[in-house]
Amino acid sequence: MTAPELGEMDYLREIERLAYRVTVEASDEDWLSYEPDPEDVTPFRSSVNALARAVRSYHFEGDGCIEEDRALVRLVGATLLKPGVMPAGMEDGYEEACARMGVEPRPEGWALWNTWADGGQQVTMVVSAVETTEGLLENWSRGRALDPVTPLPSQIALVRRGWVGSMTFSPRGVDRTGLGGKPLS
């Protein structure tokens, strides 16, 4: 029996998954460290610690690992709007939600990034970075506090005052708002 042929991204994700498993096992043995290695660490443990620091999160485009020249956006939460797949709690269909926000519907959908403007005002950025948002949601579902890089100007369709949509809270957003995972009323 032959193994399925993986595309480049699937191959890299499989390597990342296996590397993450190695770090989980090392953690279960109670010696894994994300801190700088002590002088007496073995080469093997040093390598596993370095691996753990590298695979600490599920990687995706816009996660800040490659785009080091762009600042991170601190998000309280995010929502994906896609044709036929609307978040729970949103009664509008995709086209209606787009019209209400003032953006043209796109086959790929839109991401709503709920954040804060200078001065602490709540704002929602409507961005085309759908894949980035999917990566964020994957990390957040695992309890990993991660923020994306600032989108490029061409990725921002508009910025609205207030938070829009039934958002999925980021772990850091839950802490910052003090909601403890409870929905906004």
Overview of the structural elements:
The chain has 185 residues and is an alpha+beta fold. The protein has two domains: 8-54, no CATH class; 75-177, no CATH class. The protein has five helices and five strands, in the order ααβαββαββα. The protein has helices at residues 8-28, 43-54, 94-101, 130-141, 171-177; strands at 75-81, 110-116, 122-127, 156-161, 168-169. It has a five-stranded antiparallel β-sheet with strand order 4-3-2-1-5, sandwiched between helices. β2 and β3 (122-127) form a beta hairpin. It is elongated.
Annotation keywords:
elongated, 2 domains, five-stranded antiparallel sheet, alpha+beta, 15% strand, 5 strands, 185 residues
How would you describe the oligomerization state of the chains in this entry? single chain
The total count of helices amounts to 5
Large-scale geometry: elongated
- What strand line-up does the widest sheet have? 4-3-2-1-5
Give the gist of this structure:
The protein has 185 residues and is α+β, with helices and mostly antiparallel strands. 32% of the residues lie in helices and 15% in strands. It starts with 7 loop residues before the first helix and ends in an 8-residue tail after the last helix.
SSE diagram, text form:
Elements: H1 8-28, H2 43-54, E1 75-81, H3 94-101, E2 110-116, E3 122-127, H4 130-141, E4 156-161, E5 168-169, H5 171-177
Antiparallel strand pairs: 1-2, 1-5, 2-3, 3-4
Helix pairs in contact: 1-2
